[in-house]
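Task card 7
Instruction: Convert sequence to structure tokens.
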Amino acid sequence: MTIHHRRPLGLLALTTLALTLAACDKPNANTTSTDTTTTSTDTTASTSGAGSTGAAAGGDRSILVVQESSDIPTLDPGTSYDTGSGQIVENLYETLLTYKGGSLSELEPLLATKWDVSNGGKTYRFTLRDGVKFHTGNPFKCADAEYTFRRNLVTNTSSSGNWFLSESLLGTPSNANDDKSITWDKIANAVKCDGETLVFTLPQTDPAFLAKLAYAGQGIVDSAHAKEIGEWDGTEATWQAAVGKDLTDSALSRNPSGTGAYRFVSRDANNFRAQAFNDYWGDKAKITNVVIQKVPELAARQQAFLRGDADLIEAGTRANIEAQLKGKPGVVILDDLPNTTASGLAMNQNIQAKDRLGSGKLDGQGIPANFFSDADVRRAFVSSFDVDTYIKQVQNGMGKARNFLLPDSFPGYNPEVAAPKFDLAAAKAAFQKAWGGQVWQNGFTVNATYRAGSQGAQTAMEILKKNIESLNPKFRVNIQPKQWSEILQDADKGREALVVTAWAPDYADPDNFVSTFYSSQGFYHPRVGFKDPQIDSWIQEARSTTDAERRNQLYTQIAERARDQAYYILMPSSPAILPYRDNLQGFSKDDYNPMLSFSTFGTGTHWKDLSKS
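Output:
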């Protein structure tokens, strides 16, 4: 998931490099009389707007106040693939199973109560939980799960995590517009109900399949409600019209209904509101209302946090947190937490936007669309990035250079592989060779983009800009802040030339990172525009074997080749750090699970497990 990643970390994304927040909508029409009273209190507590919530909100035990810097692209689980959307979806919706405690590998039932695997790992039968209601009051049935997974397979947009669901169930990451072998029969046979038992049939064994089902974007949708408000009707007669449909602003995004511990109340340009669901099947949420506010200025968020007007905030970089928040009254810092994200600067080798190219030529006033297809250009950019300075300025000395876009906590990461080095002499030599000497002789102007409000991303771009421009007065790197939702849309279309990106895992397997970043069929392919047949073959072999030793060997080979070809500018690793108000309980280093951390700052838990004193 982009962070982009969950993720998009979404997923992901979970770090200061990727985040999102509030757009606009109307209140849920299914509000009860009791809920209306509570919602009125919620609205009063937060009507002071984006810059302030008032002490009543942050200090009230019944309200969790969160402040972040940017927007929420969508509330539809069928297309949520970024951390801002994911943090909402994972609390409004529920998946069949989930991660247990602080484990990255152990799964436990959620909307399913048990499952059986047969047919050589190709058939999965799920027994579903009884007595569960959606926020509309509709009962949860097998038909809802069947509809959810079929809808995900049918739509399967490039801005969703459904590519890896399709890969498991249909044998291809593509949707039916791009792969004509996908038929309705394939989709219908891949997931169907046998009475009230949900049955998946895979074309081949996939050892990561269960973990994929725990991804927040596979949250079960209220099918009757979805059809009633105009979503796909779930039938063979209409499925082709729904293929690849953009769900970002779908009817379900505007009016969601899940089985989660919280139900949607409203959102506008600066605020999102959710409320504890009275008929939730599990342990009831301890905090009644959740308010997420868009506050673009870091100083304003920090001031609200120190006053106690906000319980959790996007607090900036580690350096910001340690300088402005650590040791202050009412503040608790949870530090040295596992970080399972990977981030880098993506250099697009096939830029699909004339307005990002300047002159479109190597004349000092722009770049051609394939500027980054020259490996010496990429090597020069990589050698110009000062990782040590970034670690000092942004991470307060915590972290280390990475050699691969794979978290060092994951299997497959080999610390013995040398990481790229900051070396301006090497950068100069590479620039002099690039494009047969034209780059050095004529110069260039590159337009780079980072997420507005992210100090970490901004600092990374500023370091790169300073070093590159110091080499030759004809070199220009223009950096531009943009809203995360705009970056996602443009990057998806290959329009960004150079952009900070990050990935949080959709499921706990190295393939989720390696195929995402490096495969010509991967999520980032439209964003980086390169195809490496050798890497593709290694990725395919790694994902088709259960031999852990061989997989590790293959990932080492991929890391070395990707480094030598300079496909990305790699950002350093960094332990996660989480500040929160001392009247907020429910955080634990032992139970912290980054796989449940689809927020912009990685809370490692769900809202329902938090309480306030």
